[in-house]
From TrEMBL:
Domain HTH-like: 26-81
Short name of any one Pfam family annotated for the protein: HTH_21
Protein name: Transposase
Organism of derivation: Dietzia natronolimnaea
InterPro entries: HTH-like_dom, Transposase_IS3/IS150/IS904
Domain of life: Bacteria
Length: 122
């Protein structure tokens, strides 16, 4: 088998006898803890909230590590629904009359007042 995989026999047995690293063991412990918190919080928390919950429990862990562990475990926080603009059903509103007649030039000051609402999100 080692010849077909182009791996030395000694390298295979070294890999097979190798114990798990401290980081892998800690990742397993954190993954179990993350899964428990995820279930307790009804699958709501994302990476930031999960990291805050772990920190409140006394576990120092970075958000990148929490992201990696949650992704590996297949956990994803709930996202808020996209904002949807709604309108009031009913009759069509009557447009305001055009008192200026689309002529915005004035002979003297304070005769015609105009405004701009381009900052309003539509």
């Amino acid at each position: 088998m080692c010849a077909q995989l182009d791996v030395s026999t000694s390298g295979y047995y070294k890999w097979r006898g190798k114990s798990r690293s401290a980081r892998d063991l800690r990742d397993d412990e954190l993954t179990t803890l993350i899964e428990c918190l995820y279930e307790r919080l009804n699958g709501r928390p994302g990476v930031r909230r999960m990291r805050a919950e772990l920190a409140a429990g006394g576990h120092r862990v970075s958000h990148k590590r929490v992201w990696r562990l949650m992704k590996t475990a297949g956990l994803e926080g709930r996202h808020p629904k996209a904002w949807k603009r709604t309108t009031v059903a009913g009759e069509r509103p009557v447009p305001a009359p055009d008192l200026v007649g689309r002529d915005f030039t004035a002979a003297e000051a304070n005769t015609k007042w105009c405004g701009d609402i381009t900052y309003v999100r539509t």
